[in-house]
Amino acid sequence: MDEEKQIASTWPPPPPFWKAFTPENILRIDALRKEAAENSGLQDSSNARLTSLPRELRNLQPPSEPEDGEWRVFGDKYRLKDELPHLEDGEIRRLFPDPDERDQDGKHFDRATILKRLAKSLLLNFLELTGLLATSPEAAEDKITDLRDLFINFHHLINEYRPHQARESLISMMQSQLDRTRAETHAIRDAKDKAERVLEGLSSLTIEDQLNDRALEKGGAHGPDADVWDLLLA
Question: In the prediction, which pLDDT does 230 show?
Answer without folding.
Answer: 54
